[in-house]
Structure formats: C-alpha cells, structure tokens
Amino acid sequence: MSLALYLVVMLNEAVQDAYRLGLCIDLAAWHVRMIAWIRRPEVPVEQTHR
What is the pLDDT of residue 7? Predict the structure, then answer.
C-alpha cells in the first residue's frame, strides 16, 4: 500500500509542476499511466460453517 500512496503523492507533485510551468495536461491519461494499474489485494472470502 505504501507504493500506491507514494505514487499518488508523486502524481500530485507532477500536476502542480505542470500547472506552474503553464502546461496543458490530460489528467485522466496521467492517472492511468501512474496510478490506475495498481490493484487492491483480493481478500479471500471466509467460508461459512454449517
């Protein structure tokens, strides 16, 4: 999970830098490139005892 948090922080800094430089950016594309590939770990479903 720490990698995901780190990447979100880096994306935020990159967007701020881009705006400061006057660049026009595609936020959706940046999100896909930097964050969207991260998946939550699947939590196994416990079986109910009968």
Answer: 92
Q: How high is the mean pLDDT of the chain?
A: 86
Selection from 30, 41, 49 nearest residue 3 by Cα: 41
**What is the three-state SS of the chain?**
CHHHHHHHHHHHHHHHHHHHCCCCCCHHHHHHHHCCCCCCCCCCCCCCCC
CA 28 to chain centre: 11
Dihedral pair phi/psi, residue 32, rounded to 5°: -60, -45
Q: What is the pTM of this model?
A: 0.68
The candidate with the shortest Cα–Cα distance to 30, out of 8, 1, 45, 2, is 8
